[in-house]
Amino acid sequence: MLLNLHSIRIDGGTQSRAELNNTTVEEYTEAMLEGAAFPPIVVFFDGASYWLADGFHRYFGADHAGLDEVDAEVRQGTQQDAQLFSFGVNASHGLRRTNADKRKAVTGALQHPVSGQWGDRQIAKHCGVDHKTVAAVRAAIWGNSPDTPTERTVTRNGTSYQQNTTNIGKTDRPAPAAIPAPAPAAPLPKPVVVVPPPKTSQPDHFRVPHGEGPPEGMNEDDFGPSPEEIAEAEAADRAERELVEKMLAADDKMAMLFDEVKMLKAQVDRLERHRDELMNKAHALDQIARKRDRENLRLLKQLDELKKGGAR
Description:
This protein is α/β, with parallel strands linked by helices. It has a domain at 1-97: Conserved hypothetical protein from pyrococcus furiosus pfu- 392566-001, ParB domain. 47% of the residues lie in helices and 11% in strands. The chain has seven helices and seven strands. A hairpin with a 2-residue loop joins strand 6 and strand 7.
């Protein structure tokens, strides 16, 4: 159906790409001005708003072309339904997704109230990526924090059920035997020590009150992470990001190989159709040749009869 372009909402978090491709928008705009037909965009209608779920490049192409209406497939659903649907679009059609696009789609799926309860493989299937990519993005978001969901919806052999993931990867080991506490020593008298105020070059209103600062011989920096710890944490973060990028790149290679297989299969199909057409033509020509042979034999027979009659 044709839908008024300005009645469609694009502010509902339903854009699963990291950013629009301006070149693609310009190409779509030129094609639309020339009268080219495009597949309908997909919107979800909740009774009040039309939420755009698939077709942002087509939407902006139509807008730049000055069109008031756009062909749309309208589905009944909420804004959250549109978001969930958007995570899986462009996996097998449209402009090829970048690594950033895939990461945003997976991140959105992990944080969505519905798909956030799914397992890695189910999210990977919905988003069109490898399940290891989902696991890496999940770890990058939550790590081992308490925000990590403890229950996921798992689907196996057509049956869905809730799985508690709290103890996954853990082993049941007996608790170590308790070590008896040593007998308390007699308390020593507390010496009275007068600590002079620490010397500092900071203004008075920045000074730590006397008696609340670090012990003598230490400063505030001694209580924070060391430079080595900071460098180690930064290196771990870089390694984690590189791992995610490698997994996303592997998804790209798999998608390219899949496209090549589809292209080769299409070529094989065309060759097989061409072979069948040639075989049909050869069969038809063979039938015509047989028919002409029979006709020639009939004519020769009639000619022989005429010759015999003339000889009499």
